[in-house]
């Protein structure tokens, strides 16, 4: 089977790209899609409860975005430098992208926030990324919160007034360079309402890397190499998933990151149990789903690996029809945009 990148293209007017989060969080619109028929209906996210059943399980990604963009200066001559933190490699040891890169040779030191954070380049990788060692007084993540900036996606040009609006209300485990956006629509009150109606909730952690924004460059989709991301599936979540399946309930992934975590474990190990590791699973049409029964997600970029994942779950024709309908109905797209509920 040949899949072409162009198969997943759709025309999106720029004005439909959401630049700011909607208030309140759960006021976003929600397109509801029946997987078996492709039928589409329109609702709002605050009515999600009416689309779920007692005994269903929502699994969410509790990763928390770190303010991974740092602006500082080279210590020896005060020239400007920008860091983007990608992945923690050890105690205060990080892989980063920096610009201008020619200033960041091994042994060079940089200062951020008037010395709140000091970084020294310890390695230059083959791909141009750097490994840097940070020094700071006290806790590194506290210092990062003080001096760092949220790494908003490149298509968002408006300044974010409240950093917490780029976090889910249940974010807990620091480490992502981008938020798992499907969860941005939930409020604490909504989660309480869902649980009160017998809908269970559980969490996994997948730290979202900047590779999530990496475009597919190859014309043949199967030639694309996925980025690798760290995940953790706790025992209590695995137990809840197995219990839900045994009792005939549905396992509904909130977001493509949760979906990739659950399907990685089910595909690589043949069951759902406590697991931790790295995944570069690439889900595209033809993939046989082994764990999830439903998906809550936002609207994704044309020709992205994320729209390919949605197409694998929902069906290619159903997905492309849903996206055409979303454009026609002027839904809001991408990170701060509206939601899809696929059951």
Estimated structural class: alpha/beta
Named CATH topology of the largest domain: QueA-like
Runs in which pLDDT lies below 50 for 5 or more consecutive residues are: none
CATH class of the largest domain: Alpha Beta
Distance separating the two termini: 26 Å
- The number of E-state strands comes to 17
Second rung of CATH, namely the architecture of the largest domain: 3-Layer(aba) Sandwich
CATH superfamily of the largest domain: QueA-like
Q: What's the arrangement of strands in the largest beta sheet? A: 2-1-17-16-14-3-12-13-15
Largest sheet, described in full? 9 strands, mixed
**Share of residues in strands:** 25-35%
Element string (H = helix, E = strand): EEEEEEEEEEHEHEEHEHEEHHE
Mean pLDDT: 95
Number of helices: 6
Structurally, the number of domains stands at: 2
- Radius of gyration over C-alpha positions, nearest whole angstrom: 21 Å
Shape from CA axes? globular
Helix content estimate: 10-25%
Structure description:
The chain is an alpha/beta fold. It folds into two domains: 5-65 and 162-342, 3-Layer(aba) Sandwich (QueA-like), CATH 3.40.1780.10; 69-147, Beta Barrel (Thrombin, subunit H). It contains six helices and 17 strands. It has helices at residues 140-147, 188-196, 235-246, 256-269, 305-314, 316-328, and strands at residues 29-33, 40-44, 57-61, 63-65, 69-74, 80-90, 93-99, 109-112, 117-124, 130-135, 173-176, 200-206, 229-233, 251-254, 275-279, 294-298, 339-342. The strands form three sheets. It has a nine-stranded mixed sheet. Strands 5-6-7-10-9-8 form a six-stranded antiparallel beta barrel. Strands 4-11 form a two-stranded parallel sheet. Strand 8 and strand 9 form a beta hairpin. Helix 5 packs across helix 6. The longest helix is centred in the last third of the chain and has 14 residues, at 256-269. The model has no long low-confidence stretch (mean pLDDT 95).
């Amino acid at each position: 089977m040949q899949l072409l990148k162009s198969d997943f293209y759709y025309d999106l007017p720029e004005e439909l790209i959401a630049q700011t989060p909607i208030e309140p969080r759960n006021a976003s619109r929600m397109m509801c899609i029946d997987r078996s028929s492709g039928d589409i209906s329109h609702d709002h996210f605050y009515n999600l409860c009416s689309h779920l059943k007692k005994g269903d399980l929502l699994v969410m990604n509790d990763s928390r975005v770190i303010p991974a963009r740092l602006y500082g200066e080279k210590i020896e001559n005060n020239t400007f430098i920008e860091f983007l933190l990608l992945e923690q490699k050890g105690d205060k040891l990080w892989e980063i992208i920096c610009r201008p890169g020619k200033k960041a040779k091994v042994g060079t030191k940089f200062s951020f926030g008037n010395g709140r954070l000091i970084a020294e380049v310890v390695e230059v990788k083959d791909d141009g990324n750097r490994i840097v060692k940070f020094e700071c007084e006290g806790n590194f993540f506290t210092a990062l919160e003080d001096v760092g900036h949220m790494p908003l996606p490149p298509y968002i040009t408006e300044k974010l007034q409240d950093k917490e609006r780029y976090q889910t209300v249940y974010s807990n485990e620091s480490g992502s360079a981008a938020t798992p956006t499907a969860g941005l629509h939930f409020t604490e009150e909504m989660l309480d309402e869902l649980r009160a109606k017998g809908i269970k909730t559980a969490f996994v952690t997948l730290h979202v890397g900047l590779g999530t924004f990496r475009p597919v460059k190859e014309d043949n989709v199967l030639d694309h190499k996925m980025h690798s991301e760290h995940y953790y599936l706790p025992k209590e979540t695995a137990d809840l998933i197995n219990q839900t399946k045994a009792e005939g309930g549905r396992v509904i992934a909130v977001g493509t990151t949760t979906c990739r975590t659950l399907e990685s474990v089910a595909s690589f190990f043949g069951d759902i149990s406590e697991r931790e590791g790295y995944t570069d699973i690439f889900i595209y049409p033809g993939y046989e789903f082994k764990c999830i029964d439903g998906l809550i997600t936002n609207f994704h970029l044309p020709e992205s690996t994320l729209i390919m994942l949605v197409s694998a779950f929902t069906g290619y024709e159903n997905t492309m029809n849903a996206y055409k309908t979303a454009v026609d109905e002027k839904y809001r797209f991408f990170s701060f945009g509206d939601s899809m509920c696929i059951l």
